[in-house]
Batch of 3 targets.
Target 1
Amino acid sequence: MGAKTGLLIHAEGDVADALQARPALDRDACRRLISRMSAGKQITQIEDGTLGDDVYPPKGTVYLGCFPGLDIITGQHLMIDRPSLLAAEYVAHDGRRTYLHAMHSVVDWLAFGVWHDGTLVRALSLAPDEGIIENVGEVMPFEVPYWAEDHPVEAEFGEEPYPFPFHPLDLGEAALERFFGFCVEGSSSDFDDFADIDPFEIPLMGFRLTDAE
């Protein structure tokens, strides 16, 4: 599959701490959340999945995990070029933080956004063919070594230099580690306190969305 994500998380506190506690999946809360976020769609429950298997589900499917203080949503509809334009209904305004993470290995694209109580504090989107699509807010601490060229991309002989001082997917893995305590394809090894959550142990409910008749 490669490194691909379409992930949105609302959290009251630290995401990794919440996931390490192995909380029970609240199925009723999942059903309420999918109903609120999918108005006008026909919703069909499908087989359960996991965060590891379904962080990038097929088009037309959404996976949800509602836990104490934490909501997880995955779907390709979350893979937007400009995180700052995330639809208002996906941004928490009740004191929680909202995290958006999207990347696609075929085009080396990464986008992420962070909101505190509904206010955008950081948004970044970039890909080598498109350049920097969006860069809003202050650089977050985990990004610093990447912008400082501590993780350069070595060009092969005869190739043009890589357009960024790092590979977007490497920064994407670092963002996953720092925000959520897990990664998709290998650790960046920048963090001594990496939580090392196993996403394949985090259960999610699956739903298929189609246009209502």
Note: The two ends are 33 Å apart (CA to CA).
Target 2
Amino acid sequence: MRKALFIGINDYAHISGLSGCCNDAMAMASVLKTNANGDPNFKNVLLTSAEDYLSRQKLEDQIRELFSGDCNVALLYFAGHGSFDADTDEGMLIAQDYRNAKDGIRITDILNWADKATRIKNKVIILDCCESGSAGEVRALRSESSMVGEGMTILTACKKAEPALEGAQHGVFTGLLLQALHGGAANILGKITPGSLYSFVDNALGPWEQRPVFKTNVSQFISLREVSPLIPKDILRKLPDWFVEAESVFPLDPSYEPTEKAFAPKHGEIFAQLQKCNRHSLIEPVDAEHMYYAALNSTGCRLTALGAYYRELALKGHF
């Protein structure tokens, strides 16, 4: 079972409000509810200030409930105000009834609740709020050391001393997350992991913009969402047949090219599959700029480093 809690707060009783956090939470809940093919993904609870009054007590109760019970993945997403209190060396999430630092929900408390949830295999915490990058630091050491528990992954919009900016419809960070979850961060198999999410966001933000923070303590990345594979699995399974060794060259000749008189339909079917692999950087032509010329000149094609990786996965029965 996979469950998720999404929190978005625009309106605050005693401090200035925000504009896009409710939209952020709703959009994240929507995209993670199902995989791209419509299969169920996360069982969601969505809390927004547009529908509820989200006091500190209510949020703490809901977060504690998220990190209870037995499941494979529990995911927390928060969009709203965040703060770092230098006096207590604490990062905090800000509920609607916040007045001062003592009213904040300490991020270390959230991490402790998650860490104690030993029957939950994977805990994912995504924070789109200002000064959220302190999540996971060891306060007592006042350093960049980490207290990320086993099975935990933290992804934040910015570093400890940075703001998390809002865009026209979504926060800058969440807007990029949504692009990534709709397929921008998918691998060849169509899987989107926390690591690929971070890589997508990190590459999209320049060195002078807010910098996302990624911390994890897992032995294997989980898939947060699946989209259509870039290359069908039945084609990927043929890589070890086409390339007996990772360094092998698959010989081509004019019989593989449909425009040539020597064209053989069976070869054409194989060539179409090889070209699909070439388009996604698994295969490259030998001594030719394009696969077309590799066939005409009877050279061949070979695996790239990425192709060799997926050949190895096929050999090990990963798909």
Note: Residues 265-279 form the longest helix (15 residues).
Target 3
Amino acid sequence: MGQAKTKRNEGFSPQLIDEWEADDCVNFAVALTRTTGWLLHVDWWSTSSPGAEISVDQLKPLRVYVADNRDGIFDVRGVRTIDEFNQRTIIKIANKIGVGMGGVLTRYYDETRLPSLPLRCQPNETKVAEAMEAIKVNPAYLATIPKRPTRCIPAYDAARYTFGRCSAFAEAMYELTGLQPVALLATKFSPQFAATRRAKNGYFHSLVMHPDGMAEDAWGKASIEEIAGRFGAIEFRTSSDAHRQVIENMRRSSAEIYNEEYKKALEIIREYRTEQRAV
């Protein structure tokens, strides 16, 4: 009974949940990302073949929600792992609206991008404000969500420099802080991350190392095991040479893109990172 009561206290009223779900939770999600600083996501139904070029106009929205940089999903019905959220929520919605063969496609966005997306409902500032108030007066719910540091890189930018642009971010960190960049090379992934993209040598991420043995990427300072764990790597090694090779390959094959991402990373680090030079 005590546990059930705690669960109820962390939740929202059925009336509020019904209201938010009628708009695919877009107003709740915007309110929550403004409150917590975590990342906006949209799950879409796609009938395109895997690997095909997908136009956003061909997608059907399933749910708008907020997630952290690991496997935490923050939804109107509670805090879930990715697997729990997919089973309890996304699959049920997809089964209702899915037409023909298809699958679920997950994308993350900055809030400013939402007006250009084919959502069923766009955020309504009045409803967003009401949702923020409902979240504010439910401290038990907020307590289940990990807190981001007060001064940190915005979640959307941190996510951008997690997937595919991390090497440019690590180089920018080296330029501004003197911290040494290294590559993470996986030798073993957990089963649910077996499909994680990596190079033949196991490369999957770049970051910088602190003198105390801690590591740092766009999401901030953490143990190297914690950062590797976000990608599902359970056995890995570091290599400064492999990182240098990644940079050389990018400069050779995509110099313009690399230079643009490197320049933007410098700007973001200067603006949001408090400590600019390693001690």
Note: Residues 2-143 form one domain.
